[in-house]
Design a protein that fits this description.
Length: 296
């Protein structure tokens, strides 16, 4: 297999094979991220993709129905290139029905409605979007490369294409300054455009990132673990989404790990309350500090 840098994989996709079609990140400027700091963005040559598919076809059954294409943002590629890759995948896995990938609002918004419709017909679906927040001020703080308006417009196009998305959120990303806005504006955009799944990770402030510099200068005031747990409960309480939307909170960054379908909001909130009670009884000192995390 050809491999040129770290690959994003959601825990729930642990058994899905990965095909690298780009490497690095086409933006690579988010204030919190150093994942691709030393990897220049590039496109995998067709011959490398085909060699990797040949290897995957020796490992996975030919009736394989789902694959993930990587790395940081495959939707930076042209539609022509993405459609060629879809055709190539089907040559080796003719039963393929879902090509999943990570994508940014920034690159999806550059595609027309017709192009997104074409990609959906070519099996691109279950798109992992690092939404992080629905708050315009937080998106600017994190240097995401787009604002709240662009996020709404892009999710509208995605909805029209029938392409499903998984929303990746950052708990505590607003810091103390934008704490309430981060929770309420994120609940608002998710309620307007419900994802297939909401996946939340407590914000990590890795050394050397712009976010670390902002924390050290006092520009960004990190929330305590208690406040982040309280905000997760507030987010769930304010969501108005279909009950089959799954809330995934079991990332290793999270002190309180709770997951479940949002048709059981009370059960999810009770899960967080139980975690808080357990920590109060067994490890209270952790709740009123902001932990250091060296990964996003």
């Amino acid at each position: 297999m050809h491999y040129t840098g770290p690959v994003y994989r959601h825990p729930l996709e642990a058994n899905t094979p990965i095909l690298e079609i780009t490497y690095g990140c086409s933006w690579n400027k988010c204030a919190f991220c150093n994942m691709y700091k030393d990897v220049k963005f590039g496109v995998s040559p067709r011959e490398h993709i085909e060699e990797d598919l040949q290897e995957l076809s020796r490992i996975y059954p030919h009736n394989l129905r789902k694959i993930t294409v990587a790395n940081g943002d495959p939707f930076a590629l042209s539609n022509r290139r993405l459609l060629e890759i879809s055709d190539l995948i089907r040559e080796y896995f003719p039963k393929m029905s879902v090509i999943s990938c990570q994508a940014s609002i920034r690159n999806i918004m550059r595609k027309s409605q017709e192009e997104l419709d074409q990609l959906y017909e070519a099996m691109y679906d279950d798109i992992y979007i690092g939404l992080e927040s629905g708050c315009d001020d937080v998106l600017k703080l994190l240097n995401k490369g787009y604002g709240e308006k662009e996020a709404y417009e892009t999710l509208e196009k995605l909805k029209n294409s029938k392409m499903r998305y998984i929303s990746l959120l950052m708990g505590g990303a607003g810091g103390r300054k934008y704490r309430k806005e981060h929770v309420m504006d994120t609940a608002r955009i998710l309620s307007a455009y419900p994802p297939k799944m909401i996946s939340i990770i407590t914000t990590g402030i890795a050394s050397g990132t712009e976010l670390a510099k902002m924390r050290d200068s006092g520009e960004f005031q990190q929330l305590t673990e208690r406040e982040i747990i309280e905000d997760e409960m507030a987010l769930i309480e304010n969501l108005d989404v279909p009950g089959n939307v799954y809330f995934y909170g079991h990332h290793q960054n999270n002190v309180a790990r709770v997951s479940g379908h949002l048709k059981e909001k009370e059960k999810l909130i009770k899960g967080f309350q139980d975690k808080l009670a357990y920590l109060e009884a067994n490890n209270p000192e952790i709740l009123d500090i902001g932990l250091t995390r060296e990964y996003v």
